């Protein structure tokens, strides 16, 4: 299959596409920054795309480089953008991405590849197994305890849980982290409510309450709560992935 646009893999083995290469491949004449702005609010930053710096020569043959803005897109996002152009080129590129995905899945399902990937990922752990076991003991015990919880808690209570286990974070900073990383809505009537993606994954639920106003009318309030599964997810994420380093 001819390579129309390069599809690369990140460290997690996820396929990614350069937004600038897609912009060029689609033959878009509009300036790149204006073109991409139309899609930013349609997708989740950190899930569907992430910003990266792209070193580029000032001019052809120059030894000086400048860093320009680029974005790495999920293949799903790249397919949707290509389809939305409603051009023959867009349809061709969309079909190309579908084929790339099929070949990638077929490759991952090859038992020889699975064995090689398993050995590769396991080797560093085998080399440091004793150290890893000791480091993970308290984290595993705590995560298991959280997992048995059937009670959903407030985001502020989750911040306390995380802080009690060595990662200092308050309610406001945790809310900001959840918004910035696509777990909660950033604005509008859904502000601070969980996005549907993570409700479907069972990390959050929304409690609806009705209140009677002094004039006799009724108003509804909505409270974001973290499920037992969500508590385990976020505690593990902060303890094992050092996500506290990404909090502003």
Structural class: alpha+beta
Count the E strands: 7
**In whole angstroms, how far apart are the ends?**
44 Å
| Envelope shape | globular
Count of DSSP H/I helices: 10
The largest β sheet comes out as:
4 strands, antiparallel
Q: For the largest beta sheet, what order do the strands appear in spatially?
A: 1-2-4-3
Helical fraction? 40-55%
Strand content: 15-25%
Radius of gyration, whole Å: 23 Å
pLDDT < 50 stretches: none
| Number of structurally distinct domains | 2
Q: How is the secondary structure organized here?
A:
Blueprint: E1 7-9, E2 15-18, H1 19-25, H2 32-40, E3 49-57, E4 65-74, H3 75-84, H4 88-108, H5 111-127, H6 129-147, E5 153-154, H7 155-164, H8 171-180, H9 196-200, E6 204-212, E7 218-226, H10 228-240
Antiparallel strand pairs: 1-2, 2-4, 3-4, 5-7, 6-7
Description:
By secondary structure, the protein is an alpha+beta fold. It is built from ten helices and seven strands. The longest helix has 21 residues, at 88-108. The chain starts with 6 loop residues before the first strand and ends in an 8-residue tail after the last helix.
